[in-house]
Amino acid sequence: MTSDDQGATPLDAATQTETRTDMSQAEDREGVTAGAATREIEVSRDRRPPPAEVTAPGIRLRNINAYYGDVHAIKGVDLDYAPNQVTAMIGPSGCGKSTLVRCINRMHEEIPGARAEGEIMLDDFDINSAEVDVVAVRRAIGMVFQRPNPFPTMSIFDNVAAGLKLSGIRGVNTRDRVEQSLRGAGLWDEVKDRLSSPGVSLSGGQQQRLCIARTIAVEPNVILMDEPASALDPIATLRIEDLIQELKEHYTIVLVTHNMQQAARVADTTAFMLTGELVEHAPTEKIFSNPGDPRTEEYVTGKFG
């Protein structure tokens, strides 16, 4: 039984034939030939281009250094995240990609003994300024984690509304915002008749979309996603990837992933990190077909990592 099956209510209008078709498509999209000595990764031709109109800010990192006590985890990273685009962060475990992303909304500093230095600009706004309200930063730069984390004692409705309450947002119609957010996360049609049911009663993939709805309820500018599909089955992963393509119409998205096929499918640009350093950042097609650094080529072809 998959993570999406446990405690799940079947999706409306799902048939066995459709499920087999979706599973086949999801598996086909993995793009890995069994027994091959190196990976052959094909960049998706179905990926949506960035929207013609920019509606979200970009992010500029300059000389970012991050530490865990005396351990220097991120080493002088300069990186630009383009507005309304998906930037994938790839690299082997422990390379620093998740640490870097957590610096962007100042979650890294919440770890005892951890600190970060450098300039992080949200358009022209320095989020590392001493005068900045950290709560406001995390409202503008939302985060979706590796495993779905709905509040276990709350209903589906209250899980989404909680984002508004925790952020201190007032003067909005909560019911309308919850519906808008659930629609934005591609979940409304599946839950509209059971909004009072516990959030944890949903399947794994639905719970992750519920967490995305909670994130977008506060209308952030940027969404950070730290391996959002790593705990999901192929069908649920496909839905999350399709949702990411829709979300970039309104948000700037940073996606941490160990799945290079996923990066090739959804990312407009891809950044490769190794031992705390940024090795290369380029359009996804270039990273997977003609990288500029031999270390990038060795990683994306499966020679290490």
Task: Provide the succession of SSEs.
Answer: HEEEHEEHEHHHHEHEHEEHH
Relative helix content? 25-40%
Distance between the termini: 29 Å
Rounded to the nearest angstrom, the radius of gyration is 19 Å
The count of domains is: 1
Instruction: Indicate the CATH topology.
Output: Rossmann fold
Walk me through the structure.
With 305 residues, the chain is α/β, with parallel strands linked by helices. It has one domain (55-300): P-loop containing nucleotide triphosphate hydrolases (Rossmann fold). Helix content is 33%, strand content 21%. The chain is built from 11 helices and 10 strands. The protein has a 6-stranded mixed beta sheet, sandwiched between helices. A 4-stranded antiparallel beta sheet has the order 2-1-4-5, with helices on one face. Strand 9 and strand 10 form a beta hairpin. The protein is globular. Residues 1-37 have low confidence and may be disordered.
